[in-house]
Design brief:
163 residues; mainly alpha; 0% strand
Length: 163
Amino acid sequence: MRRAAWTELWGTVHHQGTVYEATVPTVDVMADLAGWREFPDRRDALCMLCALAEGNGSHADRVVAAVRTRAHALVANWPHEPELVQRGLLMLSRSVGAVEDSLRREVLPARLEAAWEVGTSRDIWARFGDEVIVDQAEAQRFDSAMDLLSELEDWAFSEVADA
C-alpha cells in the first residue's frame, strides 16, 4: 500500500522529470519525512528530493531552491545517521551542488568513484544534449555515463547495506 502511495505521489509532483507548482510545497513535506528518524521510508523521501532537485519545467528553479534550503540541514546531520541514510544524503548533497567532502570520503566506495565523476542526470544531459545522438561512439559514451549513474543510484537507494 505504501509503495502505491509513493508511486502516485511521484507521478503527481515529478511526472517524467517535470516539476510543477504543486511540487514546491512537496519539498518541505519530503524533507520533514527524510529527517524523521522513525519514518520507515526515509530513503524514499531522500530519493524523491534528489529527483525533484534535478527536475525540469517552469517551476524547476523554485523547486531546486527549496530543496537546497532544506538539504543543508539534513546533510549537516550525516554523521549521526545510519549508513543507508548517509548514502541518500550524499546523493542529495550532490543533487543540490553542495557535497560535503567528509561525507563523500566516508561514504562513497572507491569502486564507485568513476560513477560519481559522470555527474548527475542533469549533467549528463547537458553534456550530450537533448537531441538524438546519431554518432555511434557518442551514443555509446552517453549509454555508458547513464549506466554508471544507474549503478551509483542503485547503490545509494538499494535496500541492502553492502550492495
